[in-house]
Design a protein that fits this description.
Order of helices and strands: EEEHEHEEEHEHEEEH
Low-confidence stretches: 8-14
Helix content: 10-25%
Oligomer: single chain
Distance between the termini: 38 Å
Strand order of the largest sheet: 1-2-9-8-7-4-5-6
Number of helices: 5
Strand content: 35-45%
């Protein structure tokens, strides 16, 4: 069900990039975990349990602190789906900071985007909220996102940030979806990835479907009943 994604660095060292959930993974039965009653009948299975997510985030926090060291960073949360991953990731970083001789200076900022309508990517990015990003000039920035699908949205955001002349920009994403469009057309991959997942529509852990399912503690796969029930009424 799970395996490690591995890449070779320039010196030949094997680098473990993320946890890969293979196509056809059976996941976990819904009745083995706590699922809100109002979502009964709308989910297929649990793909990533909440406890596993938290453990993976702890390791991502270690990697980020190591890479940014004492230079400091601005953590930029992509709302709304990224807020829970963002909160848990920063909590782990702050815990590590409290035990470090040279803590990582940390600031936060927010941006809100929209690129989904129902279960399909709309193919464009709309900035519908967020503060001015002028204060990012000359700073190291960590963008925290919930999921990278085709990669086009993140590429457009990175292009948008160029005008603010950041010193360095890296991206952390809880999930990366394994799609033909991303690998063959865009090829984008975040700097820090929690899980690489099959090309299925997921919800939970603040990842929504038309604003529903954010209150799930686990990452789950929506079934056809759920898609129809919570579809945008046209």
């Amino acid at each position: 069900m799970y395996k490690m994604s591995q890449e070779k660095s320039q010196d030949g060292e094997t680098i473990r990039d993320c946890i890969v959930i293979e196509d056809g993974a059976s996941g976990y039965p819904l009745d083995m975990f706590c699922i809100p009653n109002h979502y009964q009948g709308t989910l297929d299975r649990i793909l990533i349990p909440g406890g596993l997510i938290k453990d993976r985030i702890e390791r991502l926090a270690q990697d980020i602190v190591r890479d940014f060291s004492s230079e400091g960073m601005v953590a930029l949360c992509v709302l709304k789906g990224g807020y829970k991953f963002f909160t848990d990731l920063l909590d782990r970083i702050k815990q590590m900071n409290s035990h470090m001789e040279k803590p990582l200076p940390l600031a936060v900022d927010f941006i809100r985007l929209r690129s989904y309508v129902d279960d399909q990517s709309s193919g464009k990015i709309d900035v519908i909220g967020g503060d001015s990003l002028e204060n990012l000039k000359g700073k190291n920035v960590l963008i925290v996102e919930d999921i990278v699908d085709t990669g086009r949205t993140m590429e457009r955001l990175l292009d948008h940030l160029k005008q603010f002349e950041c010193k360095m920009v890296k991206v952390a994403s809880l999930c990366v979806k394994r799609t033909v469009r991303r690998t063959a057309i865009v090829g984008y991959r975040p700097d820090y990835t929690g899980f690489e997942i099959p090309d299925e529509f997921i919800v939970g852990y603040a990842i929504d479907y038309n604003e529903y399912f954010r209150d799930l503690n686990h990452v789950c796969v929506v079934n056809e009943v759920g898609k129809k029930k919570y579809a945008v009424q046209k």
